[in-house]
Amino acid sequence: MEFSYHIEGGDFSKAGLASSEVKKILKQLNVSASVIKRVVVALYEAEVNVVAHAYEGDVRVDIAPERVVVVVEDRGPGIPDIPLAMQEGYSTASAAVREMGFGAGMGLPNMRKNSDELNIESEVGKGTKVTMLTRFNP
Amino acid sequence: MTVQELTERLGLSVCSGSEGLGREIKGGYTSDLLSDVMGHAKEGDVWVTLQTHKNIMAIASLKDLAAIVLVKGRVPEEDTAAESEEEGIPILSAKEETFEITGRLYEALKAEQTV
Ligand SMILES: Nc1ncnc2c1ncn2[C@@H]1O[C@H](COP(=O)(O)OP(=O)(O)O)[C@@H](O)[C@H]1O
Ligand SMILES: [Mg+2]
Which of B79, B35, B2 is nearest to A100 (CA)? Predict the structure, then answer.
């Protein structure tokens, strides 16, 4: 089963819409509550990163009987140093974005903690592709 | 304890989402960093924050929180309140600042042995 959603950069009011849809779908498929929680946290953070750091992006969700794979691909500045970006507390978010409570530098760490496999590919000046896999029966 | 009982006990005002006043409270979480709440708040928590923009509702809904408590008499922005109505997750307002209302919330939940 596959679904996709578009994300507009800069539009914080819509951040979380894809996560909300995916939550409903996984619930309908009777995926366990604990797995749904992890997938939703990871996807929400990926969505917010597109809104906060990129120009636009697309979410693709692929659900199989044993796992869900979420791919979030954006057009944006890319991440020059991925290990540095993965460090808890590291953030390049603007002061305005921080004031809203974003930009704590906990997004990528949250994504790592809440998925079984996290892969980030990024090209500076082009964009970033985040792939997260979560198994239903860990 | 329900959200309704909490509003009475702490003298909170209900800004929106009154349909959800019967929601059961399982705990509390205080933070203004959205990723911190996303990563650490639990289902059924009451969330104490000074943030009033719409994303707090996205988080409350995704995490199945019981209610949001805004501090220092703050009220939700219009679209935040609308979302709260739609989701049936109440937004409450406390006159106190974060330290004080968190302490009172903790005492109230402790008395009920929920924390
Ligand atoms: N999709 C993205 N495009 C460009 N840069 C990104 C993207 N995602 C993350 N980053 C970079 O990695 C940093 C850390 O991300 P994250 O842990 O989510 O923290 P935060 O978003 O709070 O800054 C960001 O501040 C940004 O510099
Ligand atoms: Mg982030």
Answer: B35
